[in-house]
Input
Amino acid sequence: MKILRVNMNDLTTTFESLPDADMIIGGRALTAKILIKEVPPKADPLGPEAKLIIACGPLAGTKAPSAGRFSIGGKSPLTMGIKEANSGGPAGQKLDILGIRAIIVEGQASNGKLYRLDISKDGAELQDAESLRGLKNYSLVSTLKEQVDGKAAVISIGIAGEKGWKSSAVTMTDIDGHSSRHAARGGLGAVMGSRGLKCIVIDDKGASKAEIADKPAFQAIVKRWAKVIKEDANLQGTMKQGTTAIISTLRFLGAMPALNFSAENLEGVEKISGDAIEQLNQSRGGKMAGCMPGCLVRCSIVYNDEKGDHITSSYEYETIALMGTNLGLVDPDVVAKLDYLADDIGLDTIELGAAMGVAASAGMMKMGDAASALALLDEIEKETKLGLMLANGVEETARKLGIDRIPAYKGQAVPAHDPRITKPTGVSFSTSPMGADHTAGLSYDDFSNKDGQIDRSLASQVFSAVRDATGYCLLATPADDKVLLAFLKDLINARYSLNISETDLIEIGKETLKNELAFNKGSEFYSVHEPDPEFMRNEPIGPNSTVFDVDPAEIQTLWDKLDSYTLEN
Output
């Protein structure tokens, strides 16, 4: 297994052997390990010392169910700390088949030029990509289809990443070649753009299959897992409706943001429920699909317009909430169009939706008005003063508009899980090295009780780090975390002929978090942001009029418990 190092200063690519100690880690664990070793914590996220790390998991190329996600790592221009964002799509699987666990992109191309990185069984090569400058993600992929194998996976940035906007996403193609998968959080698209890298084309044609030490055992484990997935009650709705399956429940609880995270009622919200979207999309020929080969859950909604034409293949809860209800919009077609436009430009829909909500409260947009929302997207493309505020995230938008009610933790917008409702998740937002990020510590376990949430958040954050280190998908996680740990342990042992335990996996999660916390301690992460949002503590919300009331002093003790955390906690 190898690491591919791409030097943008001299436009060279070199392969290094993956250290034996890193053979069973990937994703977030490997990006954190490389970043703390190679990037100064106080480096400018878009400057010459910064690096972009791309890493798949240790099971990706085997096409084990839902284990092919891969991570983008770097220093975030939003949080000013370490950042990992992960995505589905076939890119991670193809990397592993080519024997590459990670790509390290370092240096900066001279004279601001753009390049394309081609990776195949024959090696890796940088090519001039100036002809691709200014292309949005969908146009970029259409252009590349005329130049590369149609089955190749593409990792790209839109115009947002080119211009260094702080909420820029890194985009991946899905099975069908749509630019619909995103490592969106933290502005890592801007880090990629600052290296001078417009896109990466990964073509595994002609490569050998991923090596598996004990194929019979591996296949038997996968077969057992298919039964677990099929019988897990928590996953049935996800298989049928994707992440929209949770909309009715979270709307009832009050956890789904509406009208800039306010407690105001929103009429017509039933139009954007999971049931409504399922019925509408099926009538138009839409479908449920997997974002990568081998997926058993197949939770991606391929959403069509009224003519039956494709709009987006990642129509999901976070976007529907932040770009929809948070802006007072309940027309599913309007939200789908906003999703497509944001994906095409290359912006995080969570960050953008939160920023637009703040702008609406400041009178820059009319809540619930589609034309007004679309006009804000035009402001971004025109690079007006308001547009650049929005593209650079909710904290900058609020600051420049003179707003002190900011739905963000450590510079990053609050996702669609209100911490006043789900208190363990609120603790995660406040303490995570990722800032406010639903993928780094989401929990609805005893969510309304202010007591005991430090331990619940810690457990969720450790488990999330394990999952991200192995490339396993959050949306394919069964109700019992320990069942997933046993599955991942068995698969890794069968592939690499090892004898690791569930405890070993937990230690990987803990070590990942320690690396991230150490990086942030040396960075500006803890010093440059607004305090945690006070309105979450004093503006009641939901049917029970709750606030986020976990004791701040208790929250500060969370990481003191990391060393002693075990599966038995």
